Amino acid sequence: FAKFVELASEPNQIPTPVIPGAAFFQRTVNDAAATAMYVEGSPDAAQLLEQATAKIKAHLDRSAQRGKQ
User: Fold this and answer.
1) CA separation for the pair 1, 68 (Å, rounded)
2) Does some domain include residue 8?
3) Which of 21, 24, 52, 65 could form a disulfide with 32 if both were Cys (CB 3.0 to 4.6 A apart)?
């Protein structure tokens, strides 16, 4: 713990902000990659990543709509 406190006090340390939905984005892309690598007969990686992109875009669009209300 002492090392963590020491590193946190460094002048060049910049906190990384939490991005809403970041875990969802990472999980969606990782799931697409894992499916492409390990599921026999699955669509190719490019198609799976396009599907993941569509899911993420839909999530962002829903979030933007909630923000406008």
Assistant:
1) 42
2) no
3) 52
The tally of domains found in the chain comes to: 1
Q: What is the pTM of this model?
A: 0.67
**Where is 34: in which H helix or E strand?**
helix 22-38
Q: Is 2 a member of any domain?
A: no
At 26, list the tokens: 């990472």
In a domain, 10, yes or no: no
CB 28 within 8 A of CB 52: yes
Domain limits at 53?
17-68
Give the whole-angstrom CA distance, residue 1 versus residue 40. 44
CB contact at 8 A, 65 and 23: no
> Could you give the CA distance from residue 55 to residue 48 in angstroms, rounded to a whole number?
11
Q: Is residue 6 domain-resident? A: no
Residues of the chain with pLDDT under 70: 1, 16-17
